Amino acid sequence: MTVTKQTAQVTALAGGTVVTPKGFQAAGVHAGLHHSKKDIGVIVCDVPASAAAVYTQSHFQAAPLKVTQASLAVEQKLRAVIVNSSCANACTGEQGLRDAYEMRDLCAKQFGFAPHYVAVASTGVIGEHLPMEKIRAGIEKLAPGAMIANAEAFQTAILTTDTVMKHACYETKVDGKTVIVGGAAKGSGMIHPNMATMLAFITTDANISSPVLQAALRSITDVSFNQITVDGDTSTNDMVVVMASGLAGNDELTPDHPDWENFYEALRKTCEDLAKQIAKDGEGATKLIEVRVHGAKTDDEAKKIAKQIVGSNLVKTAVYGADANWGRIIGAIGYADADVDPANVDVAIGPIVMLKGSEPQPFSEEEAVAYLQNDMIVIDVDLHLGDGFGIAWGCDLTYDYVKINASYRT
Amino acid sequence: MTVTKQTAQVTALAGGTVVTPKGFQAAGVHAGLHHSKKDIGVIVCDVPASAAAVYTQSHFQAAPLKVTQASLAVEQKLRAVIVNSSCANACTGEQGLRDAYEMRDLCAKQFGFAPHYVAVASTGVIGEHLPMEKIRAGIEKLAPGAMIANAEAFQTAILTTDTVMKHACYETKVDGKTVIVGGAAKGSGMIHPNMATMLAFITTDANISSPVLQAALRSITDVSFNQITVDGDTSTNDMVVVMASGLAGNDELTPDHPDWENFYEALRKTCEDLAKQIAKDGEGATKLIEVRVHGAKTDDEAKKIAKQIVGSNLVKTAVYGADANWGRIIGAIGYADADVDPANVDVAIGPIVMLKGSEPQPFSEEEAVAYLQNDMIVIDVDLHLGDGFGIAWGCDLTYDYVKINASYRT
């Protein structure tokens, strides 16, 4: 399930969305859960799609995640995923579970699918029940289409306090056929008063079985969605769902397929692209931070350290303040549960080397401040212990983060 | 090494300091490391004191910690601890280590002690060398005395951006003799541009051996200093040092001594008191948050969950905004690496129960907002899984935290 990136041929499709791969339609409507914004969305597949999903590691998995797991347990195929924003349907007990099942069944009925072909996702306030009258009326209004406008309606319907829509699309070749992966996501925005839920919905027309898709998704999630952090909190509702229509007409993809790397890379790029968009749109954020850790004992340790650095409030505020404070980076490396040789660490912020072999290097504060004015900041760390490599993404910590999160729910 | 608190007889001494226990003197002077504040301090013991210390878990232990460990390795006794603020002497390589040894030796010479009787601590900027001319001149100015004014000079000399001095003192009886524990600490303030270093210095006139003192300190650190968090970062310089003069004249304390619990509790209260003062003085903080987790499988899991809750940026901003947002508490419990039954959790903020058996409870928003105006906020969580109990302390996350930490070093 590894990939040699050098050989993969993948092209970004700037305007692509979840309806760009063959066989998918989408829609988004305003059902009145939110006072003005679209708040219910659906992606529909023309055929039963191979499907895969990953879920939050929280002990408190919200009701829609349980329903989605129940749907996938039947035959790991999906025709639709139905999503609402404004209400997370989390910590809502038995009633919440009944509501999530009803939401699934209403969607299945609306489009004439068996209920287990429908996945459900929610994001918004915790501890409140879904307003089922509005959900019922909203689902009846859904009329999916395969146009960009429909994809945009879907992208909008899933947002909470996100400031921008998040979508990505990549194209590759498998058996000479064009295979496309498209995605939409929301995240790091927050409905008063709740947690930053991350949702991502990915479509592809690749021909691939559900188990192979599931394994690829899991491995890719570990280097994309699981490597972003806005405030270190994990939501009750986080979920990533992938549907593969198979309509590209390629021979079935497995890791042994000669073009496996092309597909894997297209899926990985789509996930990484969405993950970075989520990190960049962190609450109150003004900058995307990318931390790359080289030379760790293992990739896992590199990923862990990268995430620790990008999650440090002290690093995040320093980046916000354009302060070339490598001491805080050392601080974050210092408490990582990973092998570190304190006598041989390099740290660079952008092109500026600040620590080499653990010795502070002279650098121009002016140059450093100028670099830190960019809206993407790269931090490179080399541990000189092995070949382990990992990246993580996050954002700066600003006054607006506090403002957004300290405001009264009422 | 456990203690039944019910039987321990301990009295707080409001004006007590590190010089209240018999045999200790202190001093603090302005050596010019800081532009105006006192910046070098010393505690001296009239006799070789039994000594114990705990150190940061960071991979990057600063030079003074290495020197202190070398001193204690000789016979686990101390006559003095010398401390400077403004410069952490961390990430300073071989030169830094030489400087820390010189600082130790200068102190030893000033007071006529063997060098291994001196511990060294530093806090301040990372990656810069100690200004040794100033250190040398400063140490020559040190003239310790056993008055409160001297203790206050010491308390001031160790501060960085702390807004208040931190001290605590508790008295108890051992063999009918009065035994006193006193302490001073700094923490969570931050010299531009560095990490929040926590330093604590504890004195007692109890008669106790170094190994027994070390075991007690380690066990108490786990439920006091290790249970506070301001921003989750661990400093390169964190250290707690205890010195016991033995001048109270009690029979040597061991866990089998009939009054062991009195002494243990006096030491524990001193550490907890200092830890809470540090948490409350977190950068930009307006409120102390105490999280108590009941009913976990083990004390360790309870402590872990309590610290996770109190460390959550989302919980911290909600407390700042007086937002009774129990969903964020659930969020923080949800990602804890501990056993949780998601169907049976209680959450209360102060006297107001918000979740019972994982079912949201109706409550008055007005009452909740009124409670959240207090300057100490208590959050109680019951997991209903066992007898595990743990407390952690932290503070709210405010605009001022961002302001303090985002400002340019230059």
From TrEMBL, chains A, B:
Biological classification of the source: Bacteria, Bacillati, Bacillota, Bacilli, Bacillales
Site entry: Involved in the stabilization of negative charge on the oxyanion by the formation of the oxyanion hole: T123, G124
Chief localisation class: cytoplasm
Entry EC no(s): 2.3.1.35, 2.3.1.1
GO molecular function list: L-glutamate N-acetyltransferase activity, acting on acetyl-L-ornithine as donor
SUPFAM superfamilies, A to Z: DmpA/ArgJ-like
Chain positions of site Cleavage: A196, T197
Protein's job: Catalyzes two activities which are involved in the cyclic version of arginine biosynthesis: the synthesis of N-acetylglutamate from glutamate and acetyl-CoA as the acetyl donor, and of ornithine by transacetylation between N(2)-acetylornithine and glutamate.
Subunit structure: Heterotetramer of two alpha and two beta chains.
Source organism of this protein record: Geobacillus thermodenitrificans
Alphabetical UniProt keywords: Acyltransferase, Amino-acid biosynthesis, Arginine biosynthesis, Autocatalytic cleavage, Cytoplasm, Multifunctional enzyme, Transferase
UniProt protein name: Arginine biosynthesis bifunctional protein ArgJ
Biological pathway: Amino-acid biosynthesis; L-arginine biosynthesis; N(2)-acetyl-L-ornithine from L-glutamate: step 1/4; Amino-acid biosynthesis; L-arginine biosynthesis; L-ornithine and N-acetyl-L-glutamate from L-glutamate and N(2)-acetyl-L-ornithine (cyclic): step 1/1
Recorded family membership: Belongs to the ArgJ family.
Binding annotation for substrate: T160, K186, T197, E283, N405, T410
A Pfam cross-reference name: ArgJ
Compartmental location: Cytoplasm
Listed InterPro entries: Arg_biosynth_ArgJ (IPR002813), ArgJ-like_dom_sf (IPR016117), ArgJ_beta_C (IPR042195)
Main enzyme class: transferase
Catalytic reactions on record: L-glutamate + acetyl-CoA = N-acetyl-L-glutamate + CoA + H(+); N(2)-acetyl-L-ornithine + L-glutamate = N-acetyl-L-glutamate + L-ornithine
Active-site residue list: T197
Domain of life: Bacteria
Keyword set includes Transcription regulation: no
NCBIfam families, alphabetized: ArgJ (TIGR00120), PRK05388.1 (NF003802)
